[in-house]
Design brief:
Layout (H helix, E strand, L loop, with lengths): L3 E6 H11 L4 E4 L6 H10 L8 E4 L3 H13 L4 E5 L1 H6 L1 H9 L5 E6 L15 H5 L10 E3 L4 H18 L3 E6 H5 L1 E6 L8 H7 L23 H21 L3 E4 L6 E4 L2 H16 L4 E6 L1 E3 L3 H5 L7 E6 L5 H9 L4 E6 L8 H13 L1
Length: about 350
């Protein structure tokens, strides 16, 4: 069967991929710059083809709690929003993580704090990988750098979420959400049947089953000893994810004397900066974390004895740089370059920053 190749926006790719991977439900609320996810789903009307439920909730808080309910019944459910909207969802996200339920969350970031701007930003890094809600929990965080990855990471996010019974998040920004690129769409998968959900999700609240006790899903445990046991189980699961699910990309790192560390749209700009620097005789490589959590700590640490310095480029005031500095543990110089307020830098600015902060 010939590949289906189309030209589309990153946000549209999220919607297409959700339908094609057999998602059961989407619950969201419009907010720029990700509204095309909901708009595309409404236009495609998957409830008439696959039976997927698409609902514009009355608010972000309602949407994430609809995801909580759907995930509790073993369904493949998701939501999407942008920075202020994801802030509103944080309580629900913490509850879902505490209840150990699989779901997919998409955040197409915009500038903040507060209502901020509708322009691109990467300032939700801390909120995503350090836990925006309360309690010791982690989200599996995927950072796409292309519209193709916006497509591919929907299925991957659901796969990891169900594998570990843990929420997964796609952390993109307005650049990736709004830009148009050629995309190879996946083949349509059928939604799971109720029998398959019963078999694959024995923990789900799927009604009274003969021969077993009722399933109870909650993040509440009043006995401190039992709550500690829950938390120890969570931490063991997170360590297992850290061992098995780290993903990253390396470009021209073999002979590099300097590294650019960047994710998402900044990694693409960094790649052009790397090419410009090499034309000037500066051996630069780029390492792109694909999973922001689990973070490629060991991979970055391995370069601490090989390169002279690292430049962390982000669309924020300096957030991922903290994890890079922890990884290299003071062995080499690590500096930050970022633009704020929705400004996206030129590759030349990164080369200049590299020369002025690392090479000087």
């Amino acid at each position: 069967m010939a590949e289906e190749v189309v030209l589309m926006k990153g946000n549209e790719a999220i919607a297409q991929a959700a339908i094609r991977c057999g998602a059961d439900g989407y619950f969201g609320y419009p907010i720029t710059p990700q509204s095309e996810v909901l708009e595309t789903l409404a236009e495609l009307k998957p409830w008439e083809t696959t039976g997927m439920v698409v609902l514009q909730a009355e608010s972000e808080v309602a949407a994430i709690n609809m995801v909580y309910g759907g995930a509790g019944s073993g369904k493949m459910v998701m939501t999407s929003s942008s920075s202020p909207g994801v802030s509103l969802k944080q309580e629900g996200i913490s509850y879902i993580a505490g209840a150990e339920l699989p779901c997919l969350i998409v955040n197409v970031m915009r500038g903040g704090p507060g209502l901020g701007t509708i322009q691109p930003s990467q300032a939700d890094y801390f909120q995503t990988v350090k836990g925006g809600g309360h309690g010791d929990y982690k989200l599996i965080a995927l950072a796409p750098a292309s519209v193709q990855e916006m497509t591919d990471f929907v299925a991957l996010g659901f796969e990891l979420a169900f594998k570990y019974r843990n929420p997964a998040i796609i952390l993109a920004d307005g650049v990736i959400g709004q830009m148009m690129e050629k995309v190879v769409l996946p083949a349509q998968k059928a939604r799971r049947t109720e029998a398959e959900i019963l078999e694959q999700c024995p923990w789900a609240t799927t009604g009274k089953a003969k021969g077993r006790k009722p399933n109870i899903i909650t993040s509440l445990e009043l006995k401190p000893e039992a709550m500690e046991i829950n938390n120890l189980r969570f931490q063991a699961k997170y360590r297992k994810i850290e061992e098995n699910e780290v993903r990253f990309e390396e470009i021209n790192c073999e002979d590099a004397e300097y590294l650019i560390i960047a994710f998402g749209s900044m990694a693409r700009i960094g790649q052009k900066a790397m090419e410009l620097a090499r034309e000037q005789g500066i051996k630069v490589g780029i390492l792109r974390p694909i999973t922001l959590w689990p973070f490629p700590t060991k991979a970055i640490a391995s370069y601490a004895d090989k390169v002279k310095g690292m430049l962390v480029t982000e669309l924020n005031a300096g957030q991922m740089i903290e994890d890079v500095r922890l990884a290299v543990n003071g062995k080499i110089k690590v500096e930050h370059f970022g633009r704020l307020g929705g400004i996206v830098p030129d590759p030349d600015e990164i080369v200049t920053a590299l020369k002025e902060t690392i090479i000087k």
